[in-house]
Design a protein that fits this description.
about 300 residues; 8 helices; Rossmann fold; single chain; globular; 2 domains; alpha/beta; 12 strands; ten-stranded mixed β-sheet; two-stranded antiparallel sheet
Length: about 300
Amino acid sequence: MPRNVVVGVDGSPASLAAAHWAAQEALRRGTGLGVVHAWRPHPHPAPYVPLGSTERDWAEQTLRAAVHSVRAAHPGLRIDDRLVYDAPAAALVAAAAEAELLVLGSLGLGVVDGFVTGSVSQRVVARSARPVVLVRAGRGVADEHLPAVDGVAPEEIPETPYRTVVLGLDVRHPCDELIGFAFEAARLRDTRLHVVHAFRPPARPVVDSSGIVGPAAPPAPEAEAEALAAQEHAVVAALRPWCGKYPTVPVTETVTAGRAAAALVHAARDAGLLVVGRRTSGGRLGAHTGPVAHAVLHHVGCPVAVVPHA
């Protein structure tokens, strides 16, 4: 039996959007949905708990409300709800270990509390051994599809195409987990996969008449063209076996000189899903998200999948 898609809920609009996105993903993958809410009592009454209720009552109500909302929208979906007495980050990392993927709500840039800018999400994304998808508040089923004509909602027309899946690829560290996740996501949606690779062009050291080396200058046009061609060749080589495994997935590649985060934010403006990697090794001490994943989680509006890999 395939693993469930699991979503963490906390009563926020972002986590409710994540729950509905996770339900759709579970249906696409033919799995059940696990809904997890973690709680721990505070030494003083929490301000969000109504008078006359205990923190456990509030936790149970939060979980029930999320499950009821998802079940009303997807009555045929198998749902496993779990109230976990543990710190949220630890509970979600443990739930992710048993899941196909974990889905969390995201509040985005500039919000003090919430999964993305708070310590909970950063710890979960940095520590999870399974892919984690973060979904913004306000995202709905219609947002995964291209705009429908004549004002008809996309969910009313099953044939309305899905938006493109975007993959951020670093050809220096291509990995099966990341590329396979992106191809499978595009296949499940019957949509195009847009692969984006950004690189730093070679710089020329500038030497003055005294022989002192100054700041690097932009590369010569010939060198920049050669570097671009080499990077394009590396991208095609990395994708070739996957195109053979997924012959029905149309693929486009964009190779550009510049910062990876900026290129991905631009490419994901009209995407349905952005897929980026997180290296689990590489010399840095402790769990970490990585600068590119950290940047896109704050600035990209569509759901973002962070896939751990060696």
